[in-house]
Amino acid sequence: MILFPAIDIRGGKCVRLLEGRFDQETIFADRPADMAIKWEAQGGKYLHIVDLDGALQGKPVNLDAIRDIIENVSVPVQLGGGIRNLESIEAWLDAGVDRVILGSIAVKDPDLVKEACRQFGERIVVGIDAKGGEVAVEGWGISGGVQATELAKRMADVGVARIIYTDISRDGTLSGVNVESTVELARAAGIPVIASGGVAGMDDVYRVAASPEIEGMIIGKALYTGKIDLKAALCVAEGR
Question: For the chain, what is the domain count?
Answer without folding.
Answer: 1
